[in-house]
Amino acid sequence: MSKLVRGFKDIFGEDAQILSELENSARKIFKLYGIKELRIPTVELKELFVKSTGDTTDIVQKEMYAFEDAGGRTLALRPEGTPGVVRAYIENNFAQAAPVQQFFYIGNMFRAERPQAGRYREFEQIGVEFMGNSSPAADAAAILLLKDIVKDFGVKNYKVKINSLGCAQCRPAYKRALIEYISIGKETLCEKCKERLKRNPLRILDCKIDGPKFAENAPKQKLCPACVEHFEEVKTLLKNKIDFEEDANLVRGLDYYTRTVFEFQAGANAQNAIAGGGRYDGLIKSMGGPDIAAVGWALGAERTVGARAEKEIKKELKVYVVSMSKKCNETAFNILQNLRAANITAEGGLFDKNIKTQMKQADKIGADYAVIIGEDELASNSAALKNLKTGEQNSYPQAELTEVLKKLI
Ligand code: AMP
Predict the structure, then answer these.
(1) Segment 39-62, tens digit of pLDDT
(2) CATH code 3.40.50.300 for 13-170+221-307
């Protein structure tokens, strides 16, 4: 028998329902912000991720599911959503026709990471990209949007960290200062960070092994006046709307961020980031598009579900329809469909099984009521309605059944 591949999972029952609840919260809030859905493919050319996510990142160096297709092209399962969104934005000529766009996507991402709690090889991200808005208002709205979703879904204990990584003007000096500082202790660096020191020293601060050694005394970013002004305005706009903490060592794992970066963290374990994002003003241009600013984030769905204290899903009234004999099947089936048409959750139709088995099934699915049609009910155009929690049973005209049940909801 075939087995599930390590690091992957089947999601069903309440776990699947709770993920849908999160998606529903997100879709509801996206509507309020006027954000449109963009469905991007799961597979892209590998080079898209190498060029955008960055070839110094673990995601690209080690974690990509890349393969050659029959046409000899090197493809990859998407490890994140932003590169595909940017490619679609450029390729579909949004930049010329309507450069200001707000997109969201919901989809699975793939990273060949070492499986552990909160780290899967296939996981769901809900993401947002605001294109063509360089105002600090876009950064602030992106952060508050994330807060609104997390709050609507019901995560209560989370921390918000923000930082500014500067821009092409002020970051090089910071990079040089970091390289100089970390070089003094470079013998102690892990293998990955030795490589990072030359190519992307900021990421050393993000390393679980070397970060803590260097972060505290590392030189701090000196932002240029334009970046200071931008960051101050982001903070002003967030004031009194969200509690946040400034963290000078928050660098995020991807190469393309400029200026504002942020992370939402919940829980005490190592994989505590439920969402992260930031501004990426240079990315669209570096991928062959025009010079257009952008800011975005991605929320990890499984981790966000894990961060919600109450695990119960919102319960809805459920009805199970039972037929006592072959003669009653048609009427019972019509009632089942009528309930659904009246927006009442109804199951049933197991009519080739006896009444006992049908009632057992009603119990298994946790139905609140059973509608039972026997030959007496057939003769009198009525239906027996049994409360499965109390055992109480009453008879109602079939024509009134949906109204009776609606009152019970
Ligand atoms: P990133 O794209 O790395 O910025 O990640 C954004 C969010 O996706 C993180 O904050 C996590 O919530 C989630 N995430 C990233 N990698 C994984 C993974 N391997 N398994 C589960 N969730 C993940």
Answers:
(1) 999 999 999 999 998 887 888 888
(2) no
